[in-house]
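G.,

No rush on this.
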Amino acid sequence: MKPPLVFVSYSHDSREHAEWVREVFVNGLRSRAVDARMDVYELSYGDKIDAFMETFIEKCDHIAVVCTSDYAARAAHDLGGVGCEKQLIRRFMTAADPGQKIVPILRSGGDAAIPAFLGTRLYVDVQTDAHTDELLDQLATVLYGGQVYRAPPVAELPPWLAEKLAGGAPE
Protein backbone atom coordinates (compact mmCIF):
# COMPACT_ATOMS: atom_id res chain seq x y z
CA MET A 1 0.00 0.00 0.00
CA LYS A 2 1.37 3.38 -1.03
CA PRO A 3 1.73 5.87 1.85
CA PRO A 4 -0.66 8.83 1.59
CA LEU A 5 1.06 12.06 0.54
CA VAL A 6 0.17 14.89 2.92
CA PHE A 7 1.02 18.55 2.39
CA VAL A 8 1.47 20.34 5.73
CA SER A 9 0.47 24.01 5.75
CA TYR A 10 1.59 26.05 8.75
CA SER A 11 2.77 29.54 9.66
CA HIS A 12 6.24 30.33 10.96
CA ASP A 13 4.93 31.80 14.22
CA SER A 14 8.09 31.12 16.20
CA ARG A 15 11.12 28.87 16.19
CA GLU A 16 9.45 26.67 18.83
CA HIS A 17 6.27 26.33 16.75
CA ALA A 18 8.18 25.47 13.56
CA GLU A 19 10.17 22.90 15.55
CA TRP A 20 6.95 21.32 16.91
CA VAL A 21 5.50 21.12 13.37
CA ARG A 22 8.68 19.46 12.09
CA GLU A 23 9.75 17.24 14.98
CA VAL A 24 6.43 16.23 16.51
CA PHE A 25 3.81 16.54 13.79
CA VAL A 26 5.54 15.83 10.46
CA ASN A 27 8.10 13.37 11.83
CA GLY A 28 5.35 11.77 13.93
CA LEU A 29 3.24 11.14 10.82
CA ARG A 30 6.27 9.91 8.87
CA SER A 31 7.02 7.40 11.66
CA ARG A 32 3.45 6.14 11.12
CA ALA A 33 4.08 5.49 7.39
CA VAL A 34 2.44 8.74 6.22
CA ASP A 35 4.44 10.70 3.63
CA ALA A 36 4.00 14.10 5.32
CA ARG A 37 5.82 16.93 3.59
CA MET A 38 6.76 20.43 4.70
CA ASP A 39 8.78 23.23 3.21
CA VAL A 40 11.97 22.81 5.27
CA TYR A 41 12.38 19.21 4.07
CA GLU A 42 11.80 20.08 0.44
CA LEU A 43 13.36 23.51 -0.18
CA SER A 44 16.86 24.92 -0.22
CA TYR A 45 17.97 28.53 -0.25
CA GLY A 46 17.12 30.08 -3.61
CA ASP A 47 14.27 27.67 -4.43
CA LYS A 48 10.90 29.08 -5.46
CA ILE A 49 8.53 28.70 -2.52
CA ASP A 50 5.36 29.30 -4.53
CA ALA A 51 6.32 26.64 -7.09
CA PHE A 52 6.89 24.14 -4.26
CA MET A 53 3.49 24.91 -2.70
CA GLU A 54 1.63 24.68 -5.99
CA THR A 55 3.34 21.44 -7.06
CA PHE A 56 2.78 19.63 -3.77
CA ILE A 57 -0.79 20.80 -3.22
CA GLU A 58 -1.70 19.64 -6.74
CA LYS A 59 -0.27 16.14 -6.24
CA CYS A 60 -0.98 15.47 -2.57
CA ASP A 61 -3.64 13.11 -1.27
CA HIS A 62 -4.51 15.20 1.77
CA ILE A 63 -3.68 18.53 3.38
CA ALA A 64 -3.06 19.09 7.08
CA VAL A 65 -3.42 22.72 8.16
CA VAL A 66 -1.70 23.50 11.47
CA CYS A 67 -3.90 26.25 12.91
CA THR A 68 -2.82 29.00 15.27
CA SER A 69 -4.06 32.55 15.80
CA ASP A 70 -1.24 33.81 13.56
CA TYR A 71 -2.19 31.35 10.80
CA ALA A 72 -5.84 32.44 10.97
CA ALA A 73 -4.90 36.13 10.80
CA ARG A 74 -2.57 35.61 7.85
CA ALA A 75 -5.23 33.56 6.05
CA ALA A 76 -7.90 36.20 6.73
CA HIS A 77 -5.73 38.91 5.16
CA ASP A 78 -4.05 36.74 2.47
CA LEU A 79 -0.60 37.47 3.87
CA GLY A 80 2.64 35.73 2.86
CA GLY A 81 2.91 32.02 2.27
CA VAL A 82 -0.26 31.33 4.25
CA GLY A 83 -2.25 33.64 1.96
CA CYS A 84 -0.84 31.87 -1.10
CA GLU A 85 -1.50 28.43 0.40
CA LYS A 86 -5.06 29.48 1.27
CA GLN A 87 -5.79 30.13 -2.40
CA LEU A 88 -4.21 26.84 -3.44
CA ILE A 89 -6.04 24.91 -0.71
CA ARG A 90 -9.37 26.44 -1.82
CA ARG A 91 -8.64 25.23 -5.36
CA PHE A 92 -7.84 21.78 -3.95
CA MET A 93 -11.16 21.84 -2.05
CA THR A 94 -13.16 22.32 -5.24
CA ALA A 95 -11.33 19.59 -7.17
CA ALA A 96 -10.76 17.05 -4.39
CA ASP A 97 -12.11 13.53 -4.64
CA PRO A 98 -14.39 12.42 -1.79
CA GLY A 99 -11.53 10.50 -0.15
CA GLN A 100 -9.17 13.48 -0.13
CA LYS A 101 -9.22 15.38 3.12
CA ILE A 102 -8.23 18.77 4.44
CA VAL A 103 -7.71 18.34 8.16
CA PRO A 104 -7.33 21.31 10.51
CA ILE A 105 -4.79 20.64 13.25
CA LEU A 106 -5.55 23.03 16.11
CA ARG A 107 -2.24 23.83 17.81
CA SER A 108 -3.18 27.00 19.72
CA GLY A 109 -5.70 29.81 19.89
CA GLY A 110 -8.94 27.87 20.39
CA ASP A 111 -11.75 27.68 17.85
CA ALA A 112 -10.99 31.23 16.65
CA ALA A 113 -7.69 29.93 15.22
CA ILE A 114 -9.51 27.78 12.64
CA PRO A 115 -9.55 29.98 9.51
CA ALA A 116 -12.97 30.69 8.02
CA PHE A 117 -11.99 29.19 4.66
CA LEU A 118 -11.78 25.74 6.31
CA GLY A 119 -15.46 25.88 7.19
CA THR A 120 -16.81 23.54 9.83
CA ARG A 121 -14.37 20.67 9.38
CA LEU A 122 -13.78 18.43 12.37
CA TYR A 123 -10.30 19.24 13.67
CA VAL A 124 -7.58 17.45 15.60
CA ASP A 125 -6.98 19.28 18.90
CA VAL A 126 -3.29 19.23 19.85
CA GLN A 127 -3.32 22.38 21.97
CA THR A 128 -1.76 20.28 24.73
CA ASP A 129 0.75 17.54 24.12
CA ALA A 130 -0.89 15.07 26.54
CA HIS A 131 -2.51 12.92 23.82
CA THR A 132 -0.45 13.81 20.75
CA ASP A 133 0.74 10.23 20.09
CA GLU A 134 -2.80 8.85 20.26
CA LEU A 135 -4.11 11.66 18.02
CA LEU A 136 -1.32 11.07 15.48
CA ASP A 137 -2.27 7.37 15.43
CA GLN A 138 -5.89 8.34 14.78
CA LEU A 139 -4.93 10.85 12.10
CA ALA A 140 -2.75 8.27 10.33
CA THR A 141 -5.70 5.88 10.36
CA VAL A 142 -7.93 8.51 8.73
CA LEU A 143 -5.29 9.49 6.16
CA TYR A 144 -5.12 5.83 5.10
CA GLY A 145 -8.88 5.89 4.60
CA GLY A 146 -9.76 4.13 7.83
CA GLN A 147 -12.31 5.01 10.47
CA VAL A 148 -11.12 5.74 14.01
CA TYR A 149 -14.27 4.52 15.71
CA ARG A 150 -16.76 1.99 14.38
CA ALA A 151 -20.29 1.67 15.69
CA PRO A 152 -21.15 -1.78 16.98
CA PRO A 153 -23.60 -3.81 14.89
CA VAL A 154 -27.28 -3.19 15.51
CA ALA A 155 -28.69 -5.92 17.73
CA GLU A 156 -31.42 -8.37 16.74
CA LEU A 157 -34.92 -7.24 17.64
CA PRO A 158 -35.48 -8.34 21.27
CA PRO A 159 -38.35 -10.83 21.69
CA TRP A 160 -40.27 -8.53 24.05
CA LEU A 161 -40.23 -5.75 21.42
CA ALA A 162 -41.10 -8.10 18.57
CA GLU A 163 -44.12 -9.29 20.57
CA LYS A 164 -45.17 -5.74 21.36
CA LEU A 165 -44.88 -4.66 17.73
CA ALA A 166 -46.84 -7.74 16.59
CA GLY A 167 -49.76 -6.66 18.75
CA GLY A 168 -49.14 -9.12 21.53
CA ALA A 169 -50.55 -8.79 25.00
CA PRO A 170 -49.32 -5.80 27.04
CA GLU A 171 -47.24 -6.62 30.09
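When you get to it, here's the other one too:
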Amino acid sequence: MKAPLLRRHAATLGFAALMLVLAAVVAAATAYHLVHLRSVELQRLGDAAAHHARVFESHLSHSLNVVDLTLGNLADGDVPGSDPAARSAHLRLALRHAPYLRSLSILDPDGRVVASSEPANLGLQPALGRLQPETAPEAVLLRFGRPWEGRDMAGGRATTADTPVGSGTPN
Protein backbone atom coordinates (compact mmCIF):
# COMPACT_ATOMS: atom_id res chain seq x y z
CA MET A 1 0.00 0.00 0.00
CA LYS A 2 2.89 2.26 0.68
CA ALA A 3 4.42 1.89 -2.75
CA PRO A 4 1.39 3.17 -4.72
CA LEU A 5 1.06 6.14 -2.35
CA LEU A 6 4.75 6.90 -2.68
CA ARG A 7 4.51 6.64 -6.45
CA ARG A 8 1.49 8.95 -6.45
CA HIS A 9 3.39 11.54 -4.34
CA ALA A 10 6.44 11.16 -6.57
CA ALA A 11 4.29 11.67 -9.66
CA THR A 12 2.64 14.73 -8.06
CA LEU A 13 6.02 16.12 -7.05
CA GLY A 14 7.42 15.40 -10.51
CA PHE A 15 4.45 17.13 -12.12
CA ALA A 16 4.81 20.11 -9.76
CA ALA A 17 8.53 20.31 -10.51
CA LEU A 18 7.83 20.14 -14.22
CA MET A 19 5.23 22.94 -13.89
CA LEU A 20 7.72 25.06 -11.90
CA VAL A 21 10.39 24.55 -14.56
CA LEU A 22 7.87 25.37 -17.27
CA ALA A 23 6.73 28.51 -15.39
CA ALA A 24 10.38 29.56 -14.94
CA VAL A 25 11.04 29.07 -18.66
CA VAL A 26 7.93 31.11 -19.55
CA ALA A 27 8.94 33.85 -17.07
CA ALA A 28 12.50 33.92 -18.45
CA ALA A 29 11.25 34.05 -22.05
CA THR A 30 8.82 36.86 -21.15
CA ALA A 31 11.59 38.81 -19.37
CA TYR A 32 13.93 38.34 -22.35
CA HIS A 33 11.21 39.47 -24.75
CA LEU A 34 10.43 42.57 -22.67
CA VAL A 35 14.12 43.52 -22.43
CA HIS A 36 14.49 42.99 -26.17
CA LEU A 37 11.38 45.10 -26.91
CA ARG A 38 12.73 47.84 -24.63
CA SER A 39 16.08 47.89 -26.43
CA VAL A 40 14.36 47.95 -29.84
CA GLU A 41 12.12 50.83 -28.72
CA LEU A 42 15.08 52.77 -27.28
CA GLN A 43 16.93 52.32 -30.57
CA ARG A 44 13.86 53.50 -32.52
CA LEU A 45 13.45 56.54 -30.28
CA GLY A 46 17.16 57.33 -30.55
CA ASP A 47 16.93 57.18 -34.34
CA ALA A 48 13.86 59.44 -34.29
CA ALA A 49 15.63 61.93 -31.99
CA ALA A 50 18.68 61.97 -34.27
CA HIS A 51 16.41 62.56 -37.27
CA HIS A 52 14.64 65.45 -35.51
CA ALA A 53 18.00 66.96 -34.55
CA ARG A 54 19.19 66.77 -38.18
CA VAL A 55 15.94 68.37 -39.42
CA PHE A 56 16.19 71.13 -36.81
CA GLU A 57 19.84 71.78 -37.69
CA SER A 58 18.97 71.95 -41.38
CA HIS A 59 16.05 74.32 -40.76
CA LEU A 60 18.17 76.54 -38.51
CA SER A 61 20.99 76.61 -41.07
CA HIS A 62 18.58 77.57 -43.85
CA SER A 63 17.00 80.26 -41.68
CA LEU A 64 20.36 81.77 -40.77
CA ASN A 65 21.48 81.62 -44.42
CA VAL A 66 18.35 83.55 -45.44
CA VAL A 67 19.13 86.20 -42.81
CA ASP A 68 22.74 86.33 -44.00
CA LEU A 69 21.69 86.76 -47.64
CA THR A 70 19.11 89.41 -46.73
CA LEU A 71 21.60 91.44 -44.72
CA GLY A 72 24.25 90.88 -47.39
CA ASN A 73 21.93 92.35 -50.00
CA LEU A 74 21.33 95.36 -47.77
CA ALA A 75 25.05 95.82 -47.19
CA ASP A 76 25.80 95.54 -50.91
CA GLY A 77 23.34 98.33 -51.65
CA ASP A 78 20.81 96.21 -53.53
CA VAL A 79 18.00 98.09 -51.81
CA PRO A 80 16.44 100.81 -53.95
CA GLY A 81 17.61 103.96 -52.23
CA SER A 82 20.05 103.82 -49.37
CA ASP A 83 18.21 106.04 -46.95
CA PRO A 84 17.32 104.54 -43.55
CA ALA A 85 13.57 104.59 -44.26
CA ALA A 86 14.00 102.49 -47.42
CA ARG A 87 16.32 100.06 -45.61
CA SER A 88 13.88 99.80 -42.69
CA ALA A 89 11.06 99.07 -45.12
CA HIS A 90 13.20 96.39 -46.78
CA LEU A 91 13.96 94.84 -43.36
CA ARG A 92 10.26 94.74 -42.51
CA LEU A 93 9.57 93.08 -45.87
CA ALA A 94 12.32 90.52 -45.21
CA LEU A 95 10.77 89.65 -41.84
CA ARG A 96 7.41 88.84 -43.39
CA HIS A 97 8.66 85.40 -44.31
CA ALA A 98 10.76 84.90 -41.19
CA PRO A 99 8.37 84.64 -38.22
CA TYR A 100 11.18 83.13 -36.12
CA LEU A 101 12.94 86.52 -36.03
CA ARG A 102 11.80 89.40 -33.84
CA SER A 103 13.50 92.15 -35.83
CA LEU A 104 16.48 93.02 -38.00
CA SER A 105 18.55 96.14 -37.47
CA ILE A 106 21.52 97.79 -39.18
CA LEU A 107 24.13 99.60 -37.13
CA ASP A 108 26.41 102.39 -38.26
CA PRO A 109 30.17 102.24 -37.53
CA ASP A 110 29.54 103.86 -34.13
CA GLY A 111 27.14 101.07 -33.15
CA ARG A 112 23.93 103.11 -33.40
CA VAL A 113 20.82 101.61 -35.05
CA VAL A 114 20.26 103.47 -38.33
CA ALA A 115 17.67 101.15 -39.90
CA SER A 116 15.43 98.58 -38.28
CA SER A 117 12.32 96.57 -38.94
CA GLU A 118 11.16 97.74 -35.49
CA PRO A 119 10.84 101.55 -35.43
CA ALA A 120 11.38 101.69 -31.65
CA ASN A 121 14.97 100.46 -32.16
CA LEU A 122 16.01 103.43 -34.32
CA GLY A 123 18.67 105.55 -32.62
CA LEU A 124 19.47 102.96 -29.92
CA GLN A 125 23.08 102.02 -29.29
CA PRO A 126 23.08 98.46 -27.95
CA ALA A 127 26.00 97.21 -25.87
CA LEU A 128 27.64 94.70 -28.19
CA GLY A 129 30.51 93.74 -25.93
CA ARG A 130 29.15 90.52 -24.45
CA LEU A 131 26.39 89.37 -26.78
CA GLN A 132 28.01 86.01 -27.44
CA PRO A 133 30.53 83.89 -25.54
CA GLU A 134 34.18 84.31 -26.51
CA THR A 135 35.69 81.68 -28.82
CA ALA A 136 38.73 81.38 -31.00
CA PRO A 137 38.29 83.37 -34.23
CA GLU A 138 38.72 80.27 -36.39
CA ALA A 139 36.10 78.26 -34.44
CA VAL A 140 33.06 77.33 -36.51
CA LEU A 141 30.26 76.67 -34.07
CA LEU A 142 26.84 77.92 -33.10
CA ARG A 143 26.99 80.28 -30.13
CA PHE A 144 24.07 81.55 -28.09
CA GLY A 145 24.18 84.78 -26.16
CA ARG A 146 22.94 85.59 -22.71
CA PRO A 147 19.25 85.19 -21.92
CA TRP A 148 17.23 88.24 -22.89
CA GLU A 149 13.98 89.47 -21.40
CA GLY A 150 11.66 91.37 -23.70
CA ARG A 151 10.80 91.15 -27.36
CA ASP A 152 13.43 93.45 -28.82
CA MET A 153 16.23 95.92 -28.08
CA ALA A 154 13.74 98.63 -27.23
CA GLY A 155 12.29 97.73 -23.86
CA GLY A 156 14.36 94.57 -23.47
CA ARG A 157 17.37 93.76 -21.34
CA ALA A 158 19.90 91.03 -20.72
CA THR A 159 19.18 88.90 -17.67
CA THR A 160 21.68 87.64 -15.11
CA ALA A 161 21.54 85.80 -11.81
CA ASP A 162 21.36 89.19 -10.06
CA THR A 163 18.61 90.49 -12.36
CA PRO A 164 16.55 87.45 -13.38
CA VAL A 165 13.58 87.38 -15.71
CA GLY A 166 10.62 89.19 -14.20
CA SER A 167 12.61 91.63 -12.08
CA GLY A 168 12.57 94.38 -14.74
CA THR A 169 9.86 96.03 -16.77
CA PRO A 170 10.43 95.10 -20.43
CA ASN A 171 7.74 95.36 -23.10
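The beta strands are 105-107, 113-116, 148-149, 157-158. Residues 120 and 147 are 21 Å apart (CA to CA).

Enjoy the weekend,
O.
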